Amino acid sequence: MSVALVGAGPGDPELITVRGLARLQACEVLVHDRLAGKELLAEAPADALRIPREGLAQEEVNALLVAHGRRRRVVRLKGGDPFVFGRGGEEALALARAGIPFEVIPGVSSLSAVPAAAGIPVTHRGASAAVTAFAAHDVDALDTAALAAVPGTLVAFMGLAGLSRLAERLVVAGKPASTPVAVVSAGTTDGQRSVTAPLGAIGRVAAGLETPALVVVGEVVAVGEAIATAAEAAA
Ligand SMILES: C[S@@+](CC[C@H](N)C(=O)[O-])C[C@H]1O[C@@H](n2cnc3c(N)ncnc32)[C@H](O)[C@@H]1O
């Protein structure tokens, strides 16, 4: 039949798209990520086959989608947007090669939604006109000289575990230790927590936060603080 690669949004179940929810409510097989909340999983029909992705290799997920997609309406529910650090491209390639009809239903990515939920605009006139998103699970593999030199906002995915090392490498590469940084954990959910600190201190200040967490580096973090201060003063 067909496969829909659906973005579940960043955590708050209300942030899935209307089209994504419609596909979910009509699916026969649901293959889902850990980051897709339980409220959304409950939206699939009670008799839908539910397959958690955890513990499966990417090739096994691809094979599952191809096998079920031949005969059933399959939803592959992924956190955020399927094509932003979500391996959605690999699944789309496997489906395309196997001749299975599929569609990609974009999701609200944590890239901008999680900073927004913490009051931080990822771009702001006069403060940042560019956003560089990168995966930071392997800090030593990063080109921190390039990251330190690029203008605008840096957004690190999967960067919590190596945060101290990332901050240290950025400072050594020339990023000022005073650059404001925010770390937002479980953004958009009831469990959201965030901390801010200069780059030179963020590793220590963010200790104790839990994954998933997004790291935002740049002057936009100070803009977020200015918005919060102005709102408080006006209240
Ligand atoms: C494998 S990536 C998936 C990204 C997803 N496809 C997206 O568009 O948001 C997982 C990483 O995204 C970030 N992330 C996803 N949801 C988040 C949330 N609610 N709060 C903070 N960070 C989040 C974290 O850095 C996490 O380690």
User: Quick one: how many beta strands?
Assistant: 10
Relative helix content: 25-40%
Strand content: 15-25%
Low-confidence stretches: none
Mean pLDDT: 97
Order of strands, main sheet, comes to 3-2-4-1-5
CATH architecture of the largest domain: 2-Layer Sandwich
CATH class of the largest domain: Alpha Beta
The domain tally reads: 2
CATH homologous superfamily (4th level) name of the largest domain? Tetrapyrrole methylase, C-terminal domain
State the shape: globular
Gyration radius, in Å: 19 Å
How would you sum up the major sheet? Answer: 5 strands, parallel
- Class from helix and strand fractions: alpha/beta
Instruction: Please provide the ordered H/E string of secondary-structure elements.
Output: EHEHEHEHEHEHEHEEHEH
How many alpha or pi helices?
9
Give a written overview of the molecule.
Helix 3 packs across helix 4. This protein is α/β, with parallel strands linked by helices and 235 residues long. The chain is built from 9 helices and 10 strands. The mean pLDDT is 97. The strands form 2 sheets. A 5-stranded parallel β-sheet has the order 3-2-4-1-5, sandwiched between helices. Strands 6-7-10-8-9 form a 5-stranded mixed β-sheet, with helices on one face. It has 2 domains: 2-105, Tetrapyrrole methylase, N-terminal domain (Cobalt-precorrin-4 Transmethylase, domain 1), CATH 3.40.1010; 110-231, Methyltransferase, Cobalt-precorrin-4 Transmethylase, Domain 2, CATH 3.30.950.10. The longest helix has 15 residues, at 220-234. Strand 6 (131-135), helix 6 (144-149) and strand 7 form a beta-alpha-beta unit. The site of S-adenosylmethionine has 25 residues, from helix 5, strand 8 and strand 10.
